[in-house]
Amino acid sequence: MAKDAIALLERAFANGGGFEAALAEARYPAHGGLRRVLDVVTDQYKAEQRSKHVSRVVREAIDPLDWDARVAFYTIRPTDTDACEFYEGNLYTSQAAEQLPCSARAIVYCPLAASALIGLQAKRFATDQPMKKEILFDLPTLTLIVT
Q1: What is the pTM of this model?
Q2: Cα 97 to Cα 58: distance, rounded to the nearest angstrom
Q3: Which helix (H) or strand (E) holds 75?
């Protein structure tokens, strides 16, 4: 447990001198002392937990065996109940996924293309720009349909 706490402290102060800087701040307060150390560590812990949660949700929501050439993305605002219902109504089940050999599931261009489209939508959401509700991308034909 102490080893995990020290590792968390190191990550929290990675850009500010690491464990030694945190120890110095706690002993000889220059920017808030121990309160600042605890705040920085808490922020780091929350950021890591948020990242783990998002990764888990994405892993559970996206079926890794669904490597159909057509990839669909639905962009929604979490506060829009109509958009949430539309999204939930268009999710694929695990049973609908194609059963492909390992090599067919591991082709790197599929997730790279998907991540580029997701990144664009995330940027639009973060900058409060209009987002497309549905993006269909057929990789073999390189057909992009946006609604």
Answers
A1: 0.43
A2: 16
A3: none
User: Token pair of 104, please?
Assistant: 């067919």
E-strand ranges in the chain read 70-74, 134-138, 143-146
Pairing of strands 70-74, 134-138: antiparallel
> What contacts 24+ positions apart, CB below 8 Å, involve 103-108?
104/67, 105/64, 105/65, 105/67, 107/67
pLDDT tens profile 23-79 = 898 899 888 888 888 898 898 889 888 888 877 776 666 555 554 434 555 566 667
User: Token pair for residue 72?
Assistant: 């669909």
Long-range contacts of 83-92 (CB under 8 A, 24+ apart): 83/133, 86/133, 91/61, 92/63, 92/66
